[in-house]
Amino acid sequence: MSELTRWERAYQAFETPAEERRKFIRRLRSVGAGGWSRDARVLEVCSGRGNGLAAWRELGFARVYGVDLSRSLVEVSALRERCAVGDACRLPIRPASIDVAIIQGGLHHFPTFDLVRAGLAEMRRVLAPGGRVVIVEPARTPFLTAVHAISELKPVRALSGRMDAFATMTEEEYPLYHAWIERTDEVLRTIRQEFDQVWLRRRWGKLVFVGRPRR
Ligand SMILES: C[S@@+](CC[C@H](N)C(=O)[O-])C[C@H]1O[C@@H](n2cnc3c(N)ncnc32)[C@H](O)[C@@H]1O
User: Fold this and answer.
1) What's the pTM?
2) Closest to 177 (Cα-Cα) out of 161, 193, 166
3) Looking at ligand 1, which residue's alpha carbon is closest to its atom 27?
């Protein structure tokens, strides 16, 4: 089995799989996925340890697939048989073969904005006409500012494993994450080059975008 990095250990410690699934189910319901066809082919890009896929399954979507760059996370994934090791910027997926492409917390890990554009273009490429994209990424909000301030306090880190994990992930993602959360307008402009916006929400430290591939 591949060895986990410091970031991957913190990511695993931040939430239990059950907590993560409950969060994803709430999120998917909030974007209206409960009303979407259960025949939809769903691709989770940057699927991490696969709990997003498990959430789709719990909502009744059987045709779910995941792609993540980290072999060690794919190896421990829920629905391992549905996940492939691969690069979001060169998805191992046929064009126009997916009905819902979702990415949650993946784009802000890409080392450059050109790669973010490449990843978005890939999601558009694999979507069938009329397909949907769902993008969930961090964005600066008062809540996020407060969580960062609190999670970085030494006594809080000592007392709360979850806060320590959050602070560790933030440290490991320096400087990409910090730059990302200040660039929400640019992020949105870049997303809208590939997708027409259907729905947008920015709260609790997250940007949630639902769209359709541009014609
Ligand atoms: C913050 S995690 C999010 C994982 C999962 N979507 C979740 O919300 O729990 C970011 C994930 O992106 C993956 N990742 C980063 N760059 C990638 C790339 N170029 N292609 C595919 N996956 C990538 C990492 O391995 C990691 O699993």
Assistant:
1) 0.95
2) 166
3) 48
106 lines ligand 1 (CB under 6 A): yes
CB 106 within 8 A of CB 67: no
pLDDT tens profile 182-195:
999 999 999 999 99
> Under DSSP, is residue 50 helix (H, G, I), strand (E, B) or coil?
coil
Ligand 1 centroid from CA 66, angstroms:
10
pLDDT tens profile 15-26: 999 999 999 999
> Which stretches of the chain are DSSP H helices?
6-14, 17-30, 51-58, 71-75, 113-126, 142-151, 154-159, 161-172, 176-181, 184-194
CATH superfamily of domain region 6-213: Vaccinia Virus protein VP39 (3.40.50.150)
Question: Are the beta carbons of 170 and 188 closer than 8 angstroms?
Answer: no
